[in-house]
């Protein structure tokens, strides 16, 4: 068994806390987002854009690469892909598609589009743009979402 990489663990902790803090501040910055507070802060916006945005996604890609490197040392490529499907795609197309995204869609429509109906009245509108997966030049058609929200592919 390889020795535990505590430096990588700490980088994961820093990355997750940074993303959590960044998203908590999105309510208060002047840019468009799913939900906004009436009071907003330019200073907070500049700080988040200057301190977190330039490096945090790159850090996640680095950590993903490190995790992949170590995972492929102990299993085949097929086993690795199947583990990723079970851990990412199955939750995305179950809990994400049917629980998290409909709620986010409702709040975004209510807050940003002036929707005044109930959550259940909006559900048919949520699913009306859902298409079957297809292979095209556009990657988002392979993993379609009726509303990408913050779980989907932003390509």
What descriptors fit this protein?
2 domains; single chain; 155 residues
Strand content: under 5%
Task: Report on the biggest sheet.
Answer: none
Counting structural domains, the number is 2
Q: What is the arithmetic mean of pLDDT?
A: 86
Helix-residue proportion: 55-70%
Low-confidence stretches: none
What radius of gyration results from the CA coordinates?
Answer: 19 Å
| Order of SSEs | HHHHH
Question: What is the overall silhouette?
Answer: flat
The secondary-structure class comes to: mainly alpha
Number of strands: 0
Terminal Cα span: 38 Å
Number of distinct helices: 5
Q: What does this protein look like?
A:
The mean pLDDT is 86. By secondary structure, the chain is mostly helical. The chain has two domains: 1-74; 76-155, no CATH class. The chain is 61% helix and 0% strand. The chain is built from five helices and no strands.
Provide the fold topology.
Blueprint: H1 6-25, H2 42-51, H3 56-74, H4 77-112, H5 119-127
Helix pairs in contact: 1-3, 4-5
In summary, what is this structure?
The protein is an all-alpha fold and 155 residues long.
């Amino acid at each position: 068994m390889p020795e535990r990489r505590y430096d990588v663990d700490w980088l994961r902790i820093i990355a997750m806390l940074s993303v959590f803090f960044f998203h908590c501040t999105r309510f208060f910055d002047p840019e468009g987002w799913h939900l906004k507070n009436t009071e907003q802060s330019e200073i907070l916006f500049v700080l988040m854009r200057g301190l977190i945005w330039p490096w945090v996604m790159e850090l996640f890609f680095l950590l993903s690469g490190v995790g992949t490197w170590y995972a492929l040392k102990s299993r085949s490529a097929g086993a690795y892909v199947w583990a990723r499907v079970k851990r990412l795609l199955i939750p995305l197309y179950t809990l994400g598609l049917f629980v998290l995204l409909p709620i986010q869609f409702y709040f975004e429509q209510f807050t940003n589009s002036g929707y005044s109906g109930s959550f259940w009245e909006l559900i048919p509108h949520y699913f009306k743009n859902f298409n079957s997966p297809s292979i095209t030049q556009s990657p988002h058609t392979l993993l379609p979402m009726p509303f990408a929200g913050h779980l989907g592919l932003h390509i």
